[in-house]
């Protein structure tokens, strides 16, 4: 396993690393990814060449944390490579030859745990020697020893004369089809329209399935009930009038408007303002 993080973070990190390049054309996307990786390989190799430790920097940090915990371990030797370690209420068995511990942390991460480090210090040895070879500085430099070769831009690509023809058309045996394949439920009289075969009809009078209004057996004695009047639209008024009374007064015939706006004797001189006020309402 050799890791304590069982997630897909490495894939998500790489997707975020190339998220800008993924929006470009295929050729330019690959060019950007190549340039980023080419630069990343050089930076990683230069950073590790400056390090003087025999382990990688992050592995070195994990090992230092385990060394701090090893101070609280009580080691009881059984043989030169087999020990009993008391760590607070726990009692574990450590085998330096097989590189195992009862906590199984050393076996999973291949980095000595605090119990194993306490036994290593008991033998006056260095804990870095018991770390797996894959976490050494030499292995890291070997992994980043390669490089991506630089290439010229599109302007300096060589021009090659090559006639690119489409693939040959393969004609099958027999007479070619001239009519399209029709749907099995397509109406022969109306091309492109499906028939009503299999559709269950509903009578609009009795709301019964199996027949329609034309073929209803009780259509002669059927009593058609008028639908209930719809509720007028709008908010109800305080004076008890229908909500759409104002709209009706606007679209009423001219004779009705003239009759409704006939001035009374006491308002003979105000006929025109009353008509305008009614139309504005």
TrEMBL record:
Q: Where is the SWIM-type domain?
A: 92-124
Q: Which InterPro entries does the UniProt record give?
A: Znf_PMZ, Znf_SWIM
Q: Where is this region: Disordered?
A: 167-196, 228-247
The record's section on Pfam families has: SWIM
The UniProt keyword set, sorted, is: Metal-binding, Zinc, Zinc-finger
Q: Which SMART domains is this protein grouped with?
A: ZnF_PMZ (SM00575)
Q: What is this protein called?
A: SWIM-type domain-containing protein
């Amino acid at each position: 396993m050799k890791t304590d993080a069982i997630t897909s973070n490495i894939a998500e990190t790489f997707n975020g690393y190339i998220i800008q390049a993924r929006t470009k054309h295929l050729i330019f996307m690959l060019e950007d990814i190549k340039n980023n990786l080419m630069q990343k390989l050089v930076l990683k190799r230069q950073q590790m060449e400056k390090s003087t430790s025999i382990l990688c920097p992050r592995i070195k940090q994990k090992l230092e944390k385990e060394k701090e915990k090893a101070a609280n371990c009580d080691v009881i030797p059984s043989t030169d490579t087999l020990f009993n370690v008391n760590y607070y209420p726990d009692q574990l068995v450590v085998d330096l030859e097989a590189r195992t511990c009862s906590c199984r942390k050393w076996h999973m991460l291949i980095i000595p745990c605090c119990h194993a480090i306490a036994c290593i210090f008991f033998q006056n040895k260095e804990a870095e020697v018991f770390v797996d070879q894959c976490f050494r500085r030499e292995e890291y430099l070997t992994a980043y020893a390669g490089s991506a070769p630089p290439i010229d831009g599109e302007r300096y690509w060589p021009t090659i004369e090559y006639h690119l023809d489409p693939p040959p058309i393969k004609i099958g045996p027999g007479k070619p089809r001239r009519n399209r394949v029709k749907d099995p439920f397509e109406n022969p009289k109306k091309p492109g329209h499906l028939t009503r075969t299999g559709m269950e009809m509903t009578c609009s009078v009795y709301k019964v399935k199996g027949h329609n209004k034309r073929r209803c057996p009780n259509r002669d004695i059927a009593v058609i009930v008028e639908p209930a009047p719809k509720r007028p639209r709008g908010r109800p008024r305080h004076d008890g009038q229908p909500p759409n009374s104002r709209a009706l007064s606007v679209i009423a015939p001219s004779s009705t408007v003239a009759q409704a706006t006939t001035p009374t004797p006491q308002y003979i001189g105000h006929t025109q303002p009353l008509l305008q006020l009614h139309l504005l309402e």
